[in-house]
């Protein structure tokens, strides 16, 4: 891990992230600073709960959202044979073809690839990313990652596959969206141990180009474990190149010749949040300044966290009790399955965050209270939601 600081330093120096402005279409009417798209929506009565639903409710982290799982990705893959990188290098500029051929001729090198690289900041936190072609990069990852189609489909959709260690280090949540400073929002679609020291995740080459990543500066070399010489790589790439030996631990282990330990299976995490607690936390990231407890409180009042989805007497639908007209404007595809499903908690909860944010809930204070009032035109409703949100904050502190 000794190469990590230098790799981060050179990547941050080489890459300047281009500002990307994302503008959403549609017409919005303003009056006295308020959004009025829901002004005609009536105060909604809640669907009547059954005796079972009136009993003591389980904790949020025990309630599993009930929508059907995504079916467009199957388990397993096309049998890609992994050729993991033994050496990772960052060149001072685009690596020309002649240099690639020189690297390929080095002793013990069996395979070479060059990809784009860059750094982005999320709320001031820097992430070092490789921008890769999803189909061509599969073999450079460990077998469990290569065999998981959801990982590569996520990259093709423009989403982030994060290094598992970086997820833990930065407190990132699977399925959540994060705002890139000066750029677009990135959804964390999967996490895995990628085996690339100093790399926090992967994005697609197309997305990397839109972010202004340096093209063709990251070099990966595969060969027999522990055999590729660092000096030869440095000489081929020239002055200013940073080189990280990824199999250094294996080289040290061979020198010490300890007793062999069985390999631990690697985990690849994909899919949706596994509980309503995780879902509320992930959805709240869509609206900086909005507490997940507000979404949880609305979810409790509206449907008991998906246990009473309506329709209500006013025609509201789903776990967050959206009126269809409101959903048409503010509904989102929260789980990337290609649909905006008012009945799916994976779409409805982030849709509620989107709607609250459009009404400036992230500003807190009276703006938050007014945004909740827009959700259901009753100040008693607002007070109830705020009281429940406060209780959630104390319970899950």
Give an account of the 3D structure.
The protein is α+β, with helices and mostly antiparallel strands and 397 residues long. The protein contains 14 helices and twelve strands. The strands form two sheets. Strands 3, 4, 5, 6, 7, 8, 9, 10, 11 and 12 form a ten-stranded mixed beta sheet that branches. The protein has a two-stranded antiparallel ribbon with strand order 1-2. Helix 9 (276-284) packs across helix 10, helix 9 packs parallel to helix 12 (345-358) and helix 12 (345-358) packs across helix 13 (365-375). The protein is elongated and about 75 Å long. Residues 1-42, 51-55, 69-77 and 258-265 have low confidence and may be disordered.
Q: What low-confidence regions span 5 or more consecutive residues with pLDDT below 50? A: 1-42, 51-55, 69-77, 258-265
Number of separate strands: 12
Question: Mind telling me the C-alpha Rg?
Answer: 24 Å
Question: What is the 3D form?
Answer: elongated
Number of helices: 14
* SSE pattern, N- to C-terminal: HEEEHEEHHEHEEEHEHEHEHHHHHH
Q: Oligomeric status of the shown chains?
A: single chain
Mean pLDDT comes to 79
How far the N terminus sits from the C terminus, by CA atoms, comes to 34 Å
Largest sheet: 10 strands, mixed
Strand content: 15-25%
Structural class: alpha+beta
Helical residue percent band: 25-40%
């Amino acid at each position: 891990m000794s190469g990590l600081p230098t790799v981060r330093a050179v990547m941050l120096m080489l890459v300047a992230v281009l500002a990307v402005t994302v503008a959403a279409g549609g017409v919005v009417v303003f009056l006295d600073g308020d959004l009025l798209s829901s002004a005609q929506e009536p105060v909604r009565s809640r669907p009547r709960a059954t005796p079972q639903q009136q009993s003591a409710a389980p904790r949020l982290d025990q309630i599993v959202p009930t929508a059907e799982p995504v079916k467009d990705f199957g388990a397993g893959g096309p049998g890609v044979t992994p050729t993991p990188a033994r050496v990772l290098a960052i060149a001072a500029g685009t690596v020309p073809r002649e240099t690639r051929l020189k690297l390929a001729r080095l002793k013990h090198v069996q395979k070479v690839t060059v990809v784009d690289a860059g750094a982005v900041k999320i709320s001031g936190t820097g992430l070092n990313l490789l921008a890769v072609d999803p189909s061509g990069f599969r073999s450079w990852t460990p077998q469990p990652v290569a065999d998981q189609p959801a990982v590569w489909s996520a990259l093709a959709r423009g989403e982030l596959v994060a290094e598992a260690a970086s997820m833990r280090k930065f407190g990132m949540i699977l399925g959540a969206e994060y705002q890139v400073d000066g750029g677009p929002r990135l959804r964390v679609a999967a996490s895995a141990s990628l085996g690339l020291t100093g790399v926090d995740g992967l994005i697609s080459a197309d997305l990397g180009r839109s972010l202004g990543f340096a093209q063709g500066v990251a070099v990966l070399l595969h060969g027999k474990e522990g055999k590729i010489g660092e000096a030869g790589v440095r000489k081929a790439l020239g002055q200013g190149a940073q080189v990280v030996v990824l199999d250094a631990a294996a080289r040290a282990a061979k020198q010490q010749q300890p007793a062999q330990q069985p390999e631990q299976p690697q985990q690849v995490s994909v899919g949706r949040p596994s509980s309503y607690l995780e879902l509320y936390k992930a959805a709240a990231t869509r609206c900086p300044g909005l507490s997940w407890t507000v979404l949880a409180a609305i979810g409790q009042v509206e449907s008991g966290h998906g246990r009473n989805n309506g329709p209500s007497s006013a025609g509201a639908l789903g776990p967050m009790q959206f009126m269809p007209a409101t959903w048409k404007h503010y509904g989102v595809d929260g789980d990337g399955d290609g649909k905006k499903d008012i009945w799916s908690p994976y779409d409805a909860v982030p849709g509620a965050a989107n709607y609250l944010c459009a009404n400036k809930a992230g500003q807190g204070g009276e703006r938050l209270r007014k945004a909740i009032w827009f959700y259901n035109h009753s100040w008693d409703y607002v007070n109830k939601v705020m009281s429940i949100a406060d209780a959630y904050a104390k319970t899950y502190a």
